[in-house]
Every structure is written in structure tokens, then in C-alpha cells.
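Input.
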Amino acid sequence: MRVLPSPTGRRGASTEYCPAYTEGGPLPEAPPSTVTDAATNVAWNRYLWKSVEERALQEEARDANAAEAAHAAVWEATIKEISAGVCVGARTSCGCGDSACDCLEGWRGMTPEELYSHPWIVGDHGGGEHTVRAKRRFGRVQKNGIRAIDDGTENGENPAFGSRSKLSLISSDAPARVCRQYQRERRRRGQTLVAFEYGLEDVRKAFRRCPVAWPGFSVVFVWDPKRRRTAAFILPGFAFGVFSAVLAWNRYPALICHVMRRLLATATVAYYDDFGVGGAAFERGSGQRALIVVGDALGLGWAEDKHVAMTQSGPDLHPLGVMHDFSSVPNTGVVLIGVTEERKTKVAELIDEHIARGRLTKSDGATVFGKSRFVFSPVFGRFGLAALAPLSGLRGTTSLVEGEPLFEALLLLRRLVVSTRPQHFRVDEPQKSVVVALTDASEGEGGYTGIGVVLWDPEDNTLHYAGDEAPALLTAFFAWLREKANYIFEWELVAALCLYLTFPDKLQNKILHHFIDNEGAKFSLIRGFSGAPGGERVIHAAAAEIVSLGCHPWFGRVASKDNISDGPSRRGPHGGIDDRELRRLGGIERRLVLPTLAQLSRASDSFNQVD
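Output.
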């Protein structure tokens, strides 16, 4: 069955489902000569050999117990890689008398002399110390333990790497989109919806299994806590911690997806080293078995503990941290999609950790970006995508200062992540209907500030509206954040927020055309950021409401004279709001729901309400 387009390098449908390469990759920040010059490499290797020992001793002096645990974990991970065939060290006797022993004590690192005379380093080109550019291997604390990282930035390799290509990756709702494409093909053939299953596979140590042409760039120096000295190892594949590994490895999943679709007619997608296979229940998992065979033929090495057999639903069916439930597809044509609570917690804790530290490195930013982008799949709406922009252009270490774009982006991401709710993804009909809304705020005589909201629902052709006077407490709150001549910008944003608070039943899972007559408010909502502290608070609250509703807003400009929400934002001739025109049009009034102070406040605020 022809289900998915094959990756061909073209933009469009092919890049939606499979790792592909498009133009526009990052160019090198430093010339290649910084890592290829012979004299520089010799000096660097000798410096790093001593530095690994010096840093280990400094860490022990600061906290002996923590350093001992970290050094032991990194060493054990390195020796286990030797046993797995993705790292090369030196054999030693463990004292057990078994020449085939594979225990941890049976391996050690190489000395400089052993390293520089190794056949992989010498090769047939007269290699030696000058052809080696070693990396420091260190441990990074994660929730499930300490992970070994090879620093490709410190040794200059990452800054010297560049490419005209960049990856185009699938979104986390790709399994549901595979199901929809599969069912549409059946519809095209005059067949009914069928029970759909999905399975998951993961490649173990993926980067390590991608061979390198120059092993001298894959040498790591690590502290040996048993012999208390620096040790050297050679990685026959890419290190975890170099930018070049990403593009190099993703040629494998691109090839596999191509083979699976074109030759084996199997719906297969991949995200780095995570593979997914979809198919009808009557196929009885044949597509997943075919993927395993193809991967084995390439020598990938599947992670057995990550294997999830083809199923319609289950606690383990959450590719990329997003739960998928296909069990209702035959009866309702709906796939239930939601971000797992575990994923929400991980992202929130990660952001809290960085905010508490008060700084963010380029690597940290990439991690937060990668974990957060799953939340902003099309099925959840892309309202918060602009908030990821400050994370993508980091250089070095950046301080986190409240009010600055990076700090505010992290807070917004955290709020959006915890606000996501499960969504219904339909596989056999248009996803969402369209609703039109206009919002406005006005300042009148006597200090009167009003808010107006109008909504038209074309499904039942009804017009709804709401309006009220802005509470003085919120004005005081905005003034406490920053004193200014007027707060019309903040109130325009509040009016936009009130739309989602007042009409949640009308906006749930809908596409919304939201018109505003204030350019500053419109662009702040689009960007997800505002330089005004009060505006920032309102935008964060609006983003949380939009994500929780599963609403897909499109923000546009309306001329003030054409904005029919202006009426309910103003005081009527006999008190109340001016809704004469809306009542004449058959509008239905609803009580305006205003944001609470709690929705706009942060834990660090010291604002006190004065009665």
C-alpha cells in the first residue's frame, strides 16, 4: 500500500514524515585549521592530558564523595562501551585467570605511547600525535544517573564544523498523521476505517555505530579512578557531544525509512534514533519485524528494553513523550493524543533547575529546546513556537535575568508545557472548524477603562459578546510592575485573554481568527513576548489558556472603526456597556470573565492587595 512519500530531499510532504536535509544549515564559527594544525594538536593533547587529572583532583577536593561517584560512573560507562564494541581500550588482567573474561577489571585505557602507535591512528598516512584532537570525557548528572559526555566544544571541533544542510524532523504527532494517511488511502480505495497499530524501536548508542573516517578526532581522555591517572580511548564511531554526529547519523534513518516505504510498503518514521512503524491490526506486526531485520542488516543494534510491540494503545505507547491511543479509530475515526505527565514533569523540572542556577549554556538551551518542541506539534497548536527562538541562538553561557527575553521564554515554556491537555485528532475529516472573534479595550472619561469581546460562531451562525469595566486592582498591579502614563497596551492584551476565559466552550479545539486593533498587542501575541512586564504576564496567561483549550489562533489587524467589540468596551448612555448595535444584530450577551491576580502573578512577586 502506498502510504507515505519517500524522502527525496525535496521540501514539502517528504520532510514532514522523515529526517531529510534542507538548505540553511549553520556555517562554521572557526576555520577548520583550528583542529587540523599539527603543532596545535600536539600542544592541545598534552594540555588536555594534564588538565583531566588536575580537574579530577580539584573535584575531589571540593566534594570527595560526589567526585568519587561521578568518576566511577563515567569510567564504568566507558568500559561497558568497550564490551558493546563501540569503544577501544587496552586489555589487562583482572586476576580471574580467564583469558576471555569481559568484566570491568579486564579493561583499561591506553597510555599516550599506546594511543599514538595504535594502527587506527597511524594508518597508512603516517599518523601520530599530530593527527589526534582529543576530547575531554566528563559526567553530567541526570535524573536516572550520571551520563558520560564528550566535550566537542572545548577542543574546538564543534565551532569548526558547519554544513549547508540542516535536519527537517518529524513532529511528535507524526504517528497520528501516519494513521490518517493510512486511513485516507483506504478511503480512496473505497474501504472502511480499520483498526490501527503502532510499534516503537530504538537504536542503542546510535552515534557510536556511525563509523568515522578519521579516528584521531574520536579520541577521548577520561580519568581512571582505579589507577588514578588519565586514560585514552578511541571511539570507532561518533562521540556524543559533537555537532557533526547529528547530520552523519541521520543518513541512516533517512535510508531506512526510504527502504521501508519504497521496497517494503511499510509506514515508517524516525526521529534521530527513535523509529516508529504503523499498520493495520490484520498485518500482525509484520512491518515492525521487517524494520528489525533491515536494521540488523545494517548492524544498528536495537535496544531491547525500548522495544514496544505493535499495539493500539498502552502505557508504553508514547513516542517522543506524547501518548497515542488508536483504539477508537475504527468506531469514531479519532486518535487521542496527549503529552505524558512524565514528559511535562521532566520539562518543568529542567526549566526550574536552570532558573534556580541563574544561567543557561548553549548545550542546556538545546536540551530545553529539544524537549519542549514536542509540546508544540501542530495538534497542540503552534502558539508558543516563537518562545523557543531565544533558546536556539545561544552562544556560550547566558545569565538569566527576569524581564529579559530568554528568562521570559523559559517561564512561558514551562507554563505551556504544564497546560497541555489531550486532543482529539480526526483521521477521516477536517480537523477543526473556524470561529471569528474581535477584542478591544478603551479608556474613557473619568478614568473609565473598559473591555469588550465579540465572537461569531459560523457553525450555528450565532453572535456572542461580553463587556465590563476593567478592575482597578489590575491597574494597580500593572503600575506596581512599571509606572507609565497609560496602560492601554496591557488592557488590549487583557481583552484578548478575556476572550479565552469567557468563551472556552466556543473555542475548544477550534481554529480562531482573532482580530485586534492594536498593532503592539497583536505582534506581542504572535511573538509570545513583550518588553512590558505587565504585558508579559498577560501573554503568559493567554498562552496557557490557548494551549489548554487546544485552540489554534490566527492573530490579525482590524481597523478601529471596523472593530465591533469597541461598543461593549465603552460605557452605555444609561450605564452598563454600550451594546446597542450588537443587540440589533441579534447578539447574545455573556458575563465577561476577567483574569484573576493569581493568573498574572509569580511566586517572586511582593505585590500586596490594598483594600
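Residues 1-19 have pLDDT under 50 and may be disordered.
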